[in-house]
């Protein structure tokens, strides 16, 4: 298991208005994919705007272990790949740290290469379910040997003679879909993934960008993605857009902090990712999309968020869950400052993220004086309205970056300060969180 340094307890207290521009880091999902697809392409792929969070750095190290050359020169990451099916067998265990996306996508990418690799991660990742990925990879001919319950550490023996696969995903997961598509790259013929609900489509877009023949179709069976194996990839120049999941934190902080007016420029509004922003608007948030445009085939806007004292609790549509799955923790914080109940159904995937996010948020919110009801697949936050959230609690973060950031945002508007037992995981996705929020006017300290 990978190491974890000493915990970093942090405290956030009520602050004045948040003002200014928040330039959030690159998109985590797109960053992982650009390194992995770059490593699967002969020649030099150049990536700028890469998220330099620990999760992505761990994926870069893993790609080097499989034979790619990766270096950063100035602001650009240069990836010299080995080609589809060209991964070398790593000399050592691959440590993916905290990253479910990293490990699951890499398992997919190596599962149809004739090599063996062993994967591990930190205490959070080693608890997470991997059978959702290894089950479809077995259909290609790969074998997986892990701990009981399909957990890491786990060894994957890649298929010598991979066959293409047709797979209907039983869970709404872009990681599972992407693992199957990446495995399908080195199988002859057509690999097909069928999802009941469309999940984030960054893999499909980037595979097409590198030159794969890939199509998507909505049918009565679901969202059907068809990929032609053994493509001729061409190296790419990739500009990673900024991460809407990171933008969520300064946006939500501005909505609940009196007098705030924050601009978060250049945020991708890919419909498979932007659900939170529409949900906040439904709650009555003063959140606008300025300068709407298209960049690299993705809709992009500058988000302006202003203090919104009259937020209302709502029923969040279950069918929106996939497009905002990482944003429920911070949404539950905003819901605490709204009037009335916010009910969030169709979210059992939250229970298998970096932590059980319903449980982690419910514990901290209750500690902060907010009523939360929950079931396996839903939860309800009973909002107290602006000015009425007590705070004054130390929340456990369970090695989960989004839990840590969410409670630090809560502390900016609760009556008493809010602490977290460990803010260290924030560096996995948003290494500049403290300085960025501090520059807007937040008061976050290491305690
Ligand atoms: C991701 C997919 C989602 C998301 C994760 C990133 C991706 O996970 O929660 O943060 O990049 O594919 P699931 O596929 O498990 O829903």
From TrEMBL:
- Which family is it part of? Belongs to the EPSP synthase family.
Which keywords accompany this UniProt record?
Amino-acid biosynthesis, Aromatic amino acid biosynthesis, Cytoplasm, Transferase
Lineage, top ranks: Bacteria, Pseudomonadati, Pseudomonadota, Alphaproteobacteria, Rhodobacterales
Pathway as given in its UniProt record: Metabolic intermediate biosynthesis; chorismate biosynthesis; chorismate from D-erythrose 4-phosphate and phosphoenolpyruvate: step 6/7
Write down what this protein is called.
3-phosphoshikimate 1-carboxyvinyltransferase
Q: Give the quaternary structure.
A: Monomer.
Q: Where in the cell is it found?
A: Cytoplasm
Q: Which GO terms describe its molecular function?
A: 3-phosphoshikimate 1-carboxyvinyltransferase activity
The UniProt record gives the binding positions of 3-phosphoshikimate as: 28-29, 33, 173, 175, 326, 353
Which EC class does it fall in? Answer: transferase
Q: Which domain of life is it from?
A: Bacteria
Q: Which organism is it from?
A: Tropicibacter naphthalenivorans
Q: Where is this region: Disordered?
A: 1-26
The UniProt entry, under InterPro entries, shows: Enolpyruvate_Tfrase_dom, Enolpyruvate_Tfrase_sf, EPSP_synthase, EPSP_synthase_CS, RNA3'P_cycl/enolpyr_Trfase_a/b
Query: Can you quote a single GO CC term?
Result: cytoplasm
**Record-annotated Enolpyruvate transferase domain positions:** 14-435
Q: What is its main location?
A: cytoplasm
A Pfam family annotated for this chain is EPSP_synthase
Catalytic residues in the record:
326 (proton acceptor)
Residue numbers binding phosphoenolpyruvate? 28, 100, 128, 175, 357, 402
Q: Which gene encodes it?
A: aroA
Its GO biological process annotations read:
amino acid biosynthetic process; aromatic amino acid family biosynthetic process; chorismate biosynthetic process
Q: NCBIfam families from the xrefs? A: aroA
Q: Entry's PANTHER family? A: AROM/DEHYDROQUINATE SYNTHASE (PTHR21090), PENTAFUNCTIONAL AROM POLYPEPTIDE (PTHR21090:SF5)
Give the protein's biological function: Catalyzes the transfer of the enolpyruvyl moiety of phosphoenolpyruvate (PEP) to the 5-hydroxyl of shikimate-3-phosphate (S3P) to produce enolpyruvyl shikimate-3-phosphate and inorganic phosphate.
Catalysed reactions, semicolon-separated: 3-phosphoshikimate + phosphoenolpyruvate = 5-O-(1-carboxyvinyl)-3-phosphoshikimate + phosphate
């Amino acid at each position: 298991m990978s190491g974890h340094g000493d915990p970093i307890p942090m405290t956030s207290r009520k602050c004045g208005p948040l003002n200014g521009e928040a330039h959030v880091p690159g998109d985590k999902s797109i960053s992982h994919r650009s390194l992995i697809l770059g490593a699967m392409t002969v020649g030099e792929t150049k990536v700028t705007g890469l998220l330099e969070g620990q999760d992505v750095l761990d994926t870069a190290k893993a790609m080097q272990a499989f034979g790619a050359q990766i270096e950063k020169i100035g602001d650009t990451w240069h990836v010299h790949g080995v080609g589809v099916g060209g991964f070398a067998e790593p000399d050592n265990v691959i440590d993916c740290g905290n990253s479910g996306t990293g490990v699951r996508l890499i398992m997919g990418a190596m599962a149809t290469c004739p090599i063996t690799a062993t994967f591990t991660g930190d205490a959070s990742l080693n608890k997470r379910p991997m059978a959702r990925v290894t089950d479809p990879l077995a259909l290609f001919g790969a074998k997986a040997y892990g701990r009981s319950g399909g957990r890491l550490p786990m060894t994957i023996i890649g298929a010598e003679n991979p066959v293409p696969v047709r797979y209907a995903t039983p869970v709404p997961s872009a990681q599972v879909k992407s693992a199957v598509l990446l495995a399908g790259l080195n199988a002859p013929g057509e690999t097909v993934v069928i999802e009941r609900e469309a999940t984030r489509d960054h893999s499909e877009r980037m595979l097409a960008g590198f030159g794969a023949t890939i199509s998507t179709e909505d049918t009565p069976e679901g969202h059907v993605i068809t990929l032609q194996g053994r493509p001729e990839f061409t190296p790419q120049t990739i500009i990673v857009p900024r991460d809407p999941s990171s933008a969520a934190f300064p946006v939500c902080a501005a909505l609940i902090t009196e007098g705030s007016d924050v601009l978060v420029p250049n945020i991708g509004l890919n419909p498979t990712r932007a659900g939170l922003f529409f949900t906040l608007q439904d709650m009555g948030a003063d959140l606008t999309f300025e300068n709407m445009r298209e960049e690299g085939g993705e809709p992009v806007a500058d988000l302006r968020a202003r203090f919104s004292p009259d937020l209302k609790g709502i029923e969040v549509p279950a069918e929106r869950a996939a497009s905002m799955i990482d944003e429920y923790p911070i949404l539950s914080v905003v819901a605490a400052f709204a009037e009335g109940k916010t009910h969030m159904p169709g979210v059992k995937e939250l229970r298998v993220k970096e932590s059980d996010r319903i449980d982690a948020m419910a514990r901290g919110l209750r500690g902060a004086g907010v009523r939360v009801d929950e079931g396996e697949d839903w939860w309800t936050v009973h909002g107290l309205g602006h000015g009425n959230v007590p705070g004054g609690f130390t929340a456990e973060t369970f090695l989960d970056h989004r839990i840590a950031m969410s409670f630090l945002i809560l502390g900016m508007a609760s009556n008493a300060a809010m602490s977290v037992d460990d803010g260290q995981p924030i560096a996995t996705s948003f290494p500049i969180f403290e300085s960025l929020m501090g520059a807007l006017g937040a008061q976050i300290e290491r305690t």
